[in-house]
Write a structure and sequence with these properties.
single chain
Length: 163
């Protein structure tokens, strides 16, 4: 399995995997994937990764800016999605470890995630790669008319922003 930079031509598979995550009801507040242009505008131009094996895309990870304010320029929001048939095979860990390295190269001192409490696999993945739980946003948004909490996790770089 290898991790490489995402290309626009990967969008069909990225969107399919995102749809699989949406279908779980515990991965995102989104109810359908955006088109590529919307997704592209919402994510940074760097730190977009694909995990693949034998030409098959198994998962993806990317960063979104948390704010347009310059003081938050080194803080990114993590998205990581693994295809249904690739879950439990170490794909998420491989993507997250590479995303951490790429984010530091790009100057990020903090990357963060908001995770539904029911998404125990994502919580375990984030903890495994060094994220720490920092709090809970209660009833922060609705999905299908149901209020959902969001658990906040962050990973602070030990290389960037430490001075």
């Amino acid at each position: 399995m290898t991790v490489r930079s995402m290309k626009p031509s990967d969008w069909e598979n990225v969107s399919r995997i995102y749809s699989e995550g949406i279908a779980t009801g515990i991965a995102t507040f989104e109810t359908q994937p955006p088109d590529y242009d919307q997704w592209d505008k919402a994510h940074t131009g760097h730190c977009r990764l694909i995990a693949e094996q034998d030409g098959e895309i198994m998962g993806w990870a990317a960063l979104s800016p948390v704010s347009s304010r310059c003081v938050y320029g080194g803080v990114g929001e993590v998205s990581v999605y693994i295809s249904n048939k690739s879950r439990g095979k170490g794909v998420g860990k491989l993507l997250m470890e590479q995303l951490i390295r790429e984010s530091e190269k790009a100057g990020y001192w903090t990357i963060q995630s908001g995770i539904f409490p029911e998404n125990t696999a994502s919580i375990k993945l984030h903890e495994k790669v060094g994220f720490r739980y920092i709090g809970k946003r209660e009833r922060v948004g609705k999905i299908h008319g149901v209020w959902k909490d969001n658990l906040l996790f962050e990973k602070r770089s030990d290389k960037v922003g430490i001075d």
